[in-house]
Amino acid sequence: MTDFHTKYVDRGHGRSLWLFSETARDYELLESLPAVQGADAHMRWHPLLREWVCHASTRQGRTFLPDAADCPLCPAVKGGKLTDMPATDYEIAIFTNRFSALSAEAGTPPELGVETAPGIGFCDVVCYSADHHSSFATIGVDRISLLVAAIGHRWDTLMQDERVQYVLPFENRGREIGVTLDHPHGQIYALSHIPALIAREADSFVHSNPLGDIVAHINPALILAQNECGIVMVPEWGRYPFETWVVPHRQMASPAEFTADERVQFAALMHDAVSRLDAVHGMPMPYTLGWHTAPRGMQDTFHFYCAFRPLRRSADKLKYLASVEQITGTFLVDIPPEQAAELLAGKAKLNV
Length: 352
Ligand SMILES: [Zn+2]
Known about the structure:
Layout: E1 5-10, E2 16-21, E3 42-46, E4 51-55, E5 92-96, E6 116-118, E7 121-127, H1 141-159, E8 166-173, E9 185-191, H2 196-203, H3 210-216, E10 223-226, E11 230-233, E12 244-248, H4 260-280, E13 287-292, E14 305-310, E15 312-314, E16 317-318, H5 323-328, H6 337-344
Antiparallel strand pairs: 1-2, 2-5, 3-4, 3-6, 5-7, 7-9, 8-9, 8-13, 10-11, 11-12, 12-14, 13-14, 15-16
Helix pairs in contact: 1-4
Bound molecules: zinc ion (ZN).
Catalytic activity: alpha-D-galactose 1-phosphate + UDP-alpha-D-glucose = alpha-D-glucose 1-phosphate + UDP-alpha-D-galactose
Pfam family, one: GalP_UDP_tr_C
GO molecular function, one term: UDP-glucose:hexose-1-phosphate uridylyltransferase activity
């Protein structure tokens, strides 16, 4: 793939639709469901942890595990029920979440005993494919490459809004993790603040590039795949069973900086990573996937990477974040990363 094509549709009321394709194409757009107003969304300050908490009650009403026939992310059908998706066909679609926790037009927050702020921001849905039954692991390297381009493009556009301080593209995969729609999709949250954890992460890059240094000198046994663009690796400090990172060799703020050639190579690494995760238990791995991009002001130093954080430690056991993890932030890990790397590399089998 040498380049990609975009089509933008302003759907009114601050709602946008971006369609991405490998070659130029036309779209047929039908009516879709209106947004569910999230006027009450706002931020509340946690006085002890000194970080923002987002309160958004409209999300309670969001669609929960509909049948495939009622999927709101499948292509629109003429004469069919209205859904979230206006396009009758698409390759990659990024559009404003109908149940946004945040809004560009957020109202005045309530006056409380703690500091509050308007819930300003953007929440997008990222559809990977028109095929309801596909997944990140099956859409193929070309489509992942288009996804990398689409996420980079959207990141760039969102960061042009001065109110946006941080953009997180992510995927929650699997019902085990609380996914409410089976259709293959991710999301993008654009926040008007830099979350405390992300600020801490970004601070690590101010005087040096610890991630770049680690990748340059990593134990080869922890490398699962590599090419000219980057590597797939099991981090020694992993907090989740089979945690897997995909890291470009060169420092960049976001996937918007990839060349067309690098995008294809990075996509091949992402495909390799998810394929290994699905193979390790012989079933789709539930995970969170974070596209760690630079917060505002850190674009020149932050080293973009993707992290898969799996939640399944064996075929019949899930990893739960319980008291120690939730209360202290200290993770207890059952599978050493060195062993996870052997299993993901296919050099050993899990005996649990
Ligand atoms: Zn669907």
